[in-house]
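Much of what follows relies on a compact textual record of a protein's fold. The record below shows the convention in full:
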Amino acid sequence: LRLWGEGKSTPEVFQGALGIAPAEEDKRFATSLDGTLARYASQFVPISRTGSIELVTELAEREPKSASRQAARALALFRAGHADAAEQALEAARALDAKNPDVRFLSARLLLAKGGPAEAMKELRALLGEDHDGYDVEMLLAEAADALHDAPTRLAAVQAASRFDPTQVEPLYALLKLADERNDANGAVDLLERLARLSEHDASLYRELLRRRLARHEFPDAVRVGESAIYMDLLGFQTHRGFAEALAQTGDKKRAIFELESALLCQAEEADRAAAKSELAKLKR
């Protein structure tokens, strides 16, 4: 920044501050990005960006024999709420290549949207049988299985989705719900830890993780969680109070007092405030 402030050009700034040319930094960034996104190279990623209906229609008309172009047009129409037109475009795509993975995937989406989870699952099973697996396929399979009350398939699908893309929180939330339904307390806490690492600014996650660590009397872990939670939930009464409990239980009386005093600066129900004041008085004796 100082070099830019001196009026130097970007190549001069990069060379002077970092010792490399901008092109070299671009190359390093591209290499890093290739590693980060490598997981997508080995899985099927369906069409997600289509552009406007006008654009995809023009492209589909230019390439009338392309099932992928017709599927993209169907997706754009579907997103715009033109269900009938989307189905017509999808039929055109299916007539060209019924086994096209984008055509199969979009067919499953439309079938599920129309209340046909069994038919949607059939399309998705066909995709899997043709080696077109991936995060989106597994998440849609989980949705279809949920509609069919097929718990084993749903569990296997969200587990697979999480393996395909460990950076996504949606399968982890689904797994958390399933863990709670099975009363799997250990699994639930592990999932909350993973979610907290991925959603660093979600105060509710830290609050829940802190609550569960305290309920299990895992006080050192609760202190570790609390260290982050107070920054994510600065005005959270229960967070400061829970952190204070963890600190008191691990012998850090001074910080526990500070956290209880912080809690009393936050909004809370009067009964909770009274309980915190009582806890604070005990610590100050």
